[in-house]
Design brief:
The protein is of the alpha+beta class. It has eleven helices and ten strands. It folds into three domains: about 110 residues, Orthogonal Bundle (Butyryl-Coa Dehydrogenase, subunit A, domain 1); about 110 residues, Butyryl-CoA Dehydrogenase, subunit A, domain 2; about 140 residues, Butyryl-CoA Dehydrogenase, subunit A, domain 3, CATH 1.20.140.10.
Length: about 375
């Protein structure tokens, strides 16, 4: 199988790499974090100018018709930069819902808002009792004429405090953990009845707790068929997992490179510590874990567009297990091999480790996906 990038994909990679290299060193990132909502609006506008925000949408909707490979390229570059802009929340998650479930009229109205960088979107799906169960939705959607009224609580909404629009999952029928009976609704983040509490995550990204009290949604803002949203949510989360794997590979690559460079320059007993064979072996092990992650990320990227939900789920669980294990090993080794300075706020390897820990937790950690993979009979079904 040919894993080489096409000419257009290579140009995309070069453009994104050049942008983050010029605009996203570690000191600039710290400055971006001081902005309102913890990211740079100027950088977001540059993402839009470069076409990154329009990338995965169909040309008919005002996008560039990119697929999972293009998303992989962008997310790996953002991972190397430790970018804090809401690309995952707006383009991958919310944009994924629009691509898979929104009507033509809704896409015509909403996709240009994302592509142009005009509005921030967030997917408000997770709830406190859910853990990693995507079907656990207790938020209620009660029929009200042609529209609905939403009541409930959403937790850990990525970039929810910065969002102009929320895509909210709510239950129109069934029990709190039934796959059937879930709907998706577009809600103005400043609508009456919406309360948001934003906060910092451990990796310097932002999330929000969102309360919905008698929030009215008219018929034009119902996304897809009410009660049939679970397959859409599952597919979008699978695409997000593939994207996160790409981000993880980008971050691990920098952590490994920084560690090798430190081994070449730090001296102990009159020689560089990289001359010690045991430390060389650790650096090689880090590289092996990195390359294993790269391989499984290619697999996850290819499977992100798989229509068979069971096979797609199997692939994403396998990828999440490998990525989670690699993130832990590479992160721990990069901290330890940097010695005491690896623990400091001023050195960036610690920040990559924090982001890696967050990626491991998002949408299911190693233990969760290992259990899922085991229940499915492993990567290759019997």
């Amino acid at each position: 199988m040919d894993f080489d990038l096409s000419e257009e994909q290579r140009l995309l990679k070069d453009s994104v790499d050049r942008l983050v290299a010029d605009k996203y060193d570690f000191d600039k990132r710290k400055a971006y974090l001081k902005n309102e909502h913890g990211f740079s609006r100027e950088m977001w506008s540059q993402f839009a100018e470069l076409g990154l925000l329009a990338l995965p949408f169909a040309e008919a909707d005002g996008g560039f018709g990119g697929g999972p490979v293009e998303t992989m390229i962008v997310m790996e570059s953002l991972g190397r930069a430790l970018a804090v802009e809401p690309y995952l929340a707006t383009v991958v998650l919310s944009g994924g819902v629009l691509r898979h479930a929104a009507s033509e009229a809704q896409r015509a109205e909403l996709v240009p808002m994302i592509a142009g960088g005009e509005k921030i979107f967030a997917l408000a799906h997770h709830e406190r009792a859910a853990r990693y169960n995507l079907a656990c939705v207790a938020t209620k959607a009660t029929k009200d004429g042609d529209g609905y009224v939403l009541d409930g609580e959403k937790s850990l909404v990525l970039n929810g405090d910065a969002a102009d629009w929320l895509i909210v999952s709510a239950r129109v029928s069934g029990g709190d953990r039934d796959e059937n009976g879930i709907g998706l609704f577009l809600v103005d983040a400043r609508a009456p009845g919406v309360t948001r509490r934003g906060y910092w995550n451990q990796d310097a990204t932002r999330s929000a707790e969102i309360s919905l009290s008698k929030v009215k949604v008219d018929a034009a803002n119902v996304i897809g068929e009410p009660g049939k949203a679970f397959p859409v949510i599952e597919r979008v989360v699978h695409e997000a997992i593939a994207a996160l794997c790409s981000e993880a590979v980008g971050g691990m690559g920098v952590a490994h490179a920084d560690t090798v460079e430190y081994l070449k320059t730090r001296k102990q007993f009159g020689v560089t510590i990289g001359s010690f064979q045991s430390l060389q072996h650790r650096a090689v092990e880090m590289f092996v874990f990195l390359e294993q992650s790269r391989s499984i990320t290619y697999f996850a990227t290819m499977m992100a567009s798989e229509n068979d939900a069971a096979e797609r789920a199997r692939a994403m669980s396998a990828a999440k297990v490998q990525i989670g294990k690699s993130l832990r090993f590479v992160g721990q080794q990069s901290i330890q091999l940097h010695g005491g300075v690896g623990m400091t706020y001023e050195l960036r390897v610690g920040h990559y480790f924090k982001r890696g820990t967050m990626i491991d937790t998002l949408f299911g950690d190693v233990d969760h996906h290992l259990a899922k993979l085991s229940a499915m009979g492993g990567l290759i079904a019997a």
